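I have been asked to look over a protein record a colleague put together. This is what I was given:
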Amino acid sequence: MTGRLVADVVSPLPLVAILRGLVPERAEAVGDVLVEAGFRIIEVPLNSPRPFDSIDCLARRFGPEIRVGAGTVRDAGSVRRLAEAGGTLVVMPHSDPNVIAAAKSHGMLCMPGVATPTEAFAALDAGADALKLFPAEALPPPVVKAWRAVLPQDLALLPVGGITPGAMAAYMAAGASGFGLGSALFKPGIDDATLAANARAFVDAFREIPN
């Protein structure tokens, strides 16, 4: 399965909720809102306050039903701590093969960040399961279409960075498999009602995209 489409990345809803700035005290409530809206993949970046505590809260709350992981993972030690917290997904801003190897050694799904075809193929050779196209602002749909022509057709490609509900259709038409959603979905201090509205907007927009 390494370097190929991973079922729980692209179904039933291939949208990764990136909760940068989440605090552990809000983790369960925020998770409840997202899961109710249909999200099945939650990422807590490691530059958030006490990220492993939040990951632990989410993993305990939802169990294997929801894939909970860490973002902005930059070293193998963080992968070990993630495993101890119950996380099962490693998301990286880069494609360090040592981090990828650590993720795979712990049986985790690994999605490194890439910005060029050279980085993409190197990440696949290192064992990546899916690729985070980052930053998406620098990788518009025509670039994704060109990449899709040379990368394995069953490989999951998820643009991340600046994605809004209205931006998704063009990326999907170009060959994207899903998306990582950041500040347009969640910001520190957001209330549950606003988060729910943001989540519904993304879910509804994605489900309206023609197959």
